[in-house]
């Protein structure tokens, strides 16, 4: 997974309008991420998943909100699959096993709240 943690890029988003879908690009066979906010209270990260890419089942100690910006994804939470497309969202509850698989190229905004 590629990460762009460039703080100057993040600061350039402050107090200005941005098109989220344009802030992260697809790379064939990869998952690309760009952290927009990284604070003690939580993170906001953009992801671009190439078709067929995914994250294997894992758990996180915090609730996470997934907002699909483009494309379609299958998200499995505690064994139950959900298909989401552009404009839809789901909360992945803390401590529940979850996994993601891109059904086609897809972009999401992930908001994780730590407190």
UniProtKB/TrEMBL annotation:
<feature type="domain" description="Cupin type-2">
    <location>
        <begin position="46"/>
        <end position="111"/>
    </location>
</feature>
<dbReference type="InterPro" id="IPR011051">
    <property type="entry name" value="RmlC_Cupin_sf"/>
</dbReference>
<dbReference type="Pfam" id="PF07883">
    <property type="entry name" value="Cupin_2"/>
</dbReference>
<dbReference type="InterPro" id="IPR014710">
    <property type="entry name" value="RmlC-like_jellyroll"/>
</dbReference>
<dbReference type="InterPro" id="IPR013096">
    <property type="entry name" value="Cupin_2"/>
</dbReference>
<protein>
    <submittedName>
        <fullName>Cupin domain-containing protein</fullName>
    </submittedName>
</protein>
């Amino acid at each position: 997974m590629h990460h762009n943690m460039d703080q100057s890029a993040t600061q350039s988003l402050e107090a200005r309008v941005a098109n989220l879908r344009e802030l992260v690009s697809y790379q064939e066979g990869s998952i690309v991420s760009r952290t927009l906010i990284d604070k003690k209270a939580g993170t906001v990260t953009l992801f671009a998943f190439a078709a067929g890419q995914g994250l294997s089942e894992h758990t996180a100690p915090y609730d996470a909100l997934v907002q699909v910006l483009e494309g379609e994804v299958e998200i499995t939470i505690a064994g139950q699959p959900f298909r989401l497309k552009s404009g839809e969202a789901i909360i992945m509850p803390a401590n529940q096993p979850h996994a993601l698989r891109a059904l086609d190229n897809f972009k999401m905004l992930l908001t994780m709240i730590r407190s």
